[in-house]
Every structure is written in C-alpha cells, then in structure tokens.
Specification:
By secondary structure, the protein is mainly alpha-helical. About 20% of the residues lie in helices and about 0% in strands. The longest helix has 9 residues.
C-alpha cells in the first residue's frame, strides 16, 4: 500500500494525513477471515503497475457469472 500511496502522490493526487488514517486493507470484501491462505513469492520481483483511475473501464468481474 505504501508503494500505491507514493505513486498516487507522485501523480498529483492529494494524499492527506486524514486519508492515510482511514486507509486499511480490511475494507475489502475479498478477504476471507475464516480461510487458510498460502502466500508465495511471485516468479519475478517487483510490483505490477497501478490501474489508471481516470478510465471508466471496470476490470472487476464480481457478479458477472
């Protein structure tokens, strides 16, 4: 999340202390608190590119089954 916040700030998004205080990965419904998780390292090091917030495309395919 730190890398995403730094990228947003570099792109000119107003990252304020109030915004950072409310930032949490626990706000997402895809986290299953009752399951087991396997965390493996990606084959290549590094982070993927952030999606462009200025596009209208929605890559989220939830509910389209």
């Amino acid at each position: 999340m730190d890398a995403a916040v730094k990228q947003l700030a570099a792109d000119g998004f107003p990252v304020t202390d109030e915004l950072l205080a409310r930032l949490s990965p626990l706000q997402y419904d895809h986290i299953n608190f009752l399951g087991r998780y396997a965390f493996t390292r990606p084959a290549t090091p590094g982070l993927r590119q952030l999606r462009d917030l200025h596009t209208d495309e929605d890559d989220d395919d939830r509910g389209q089954e």
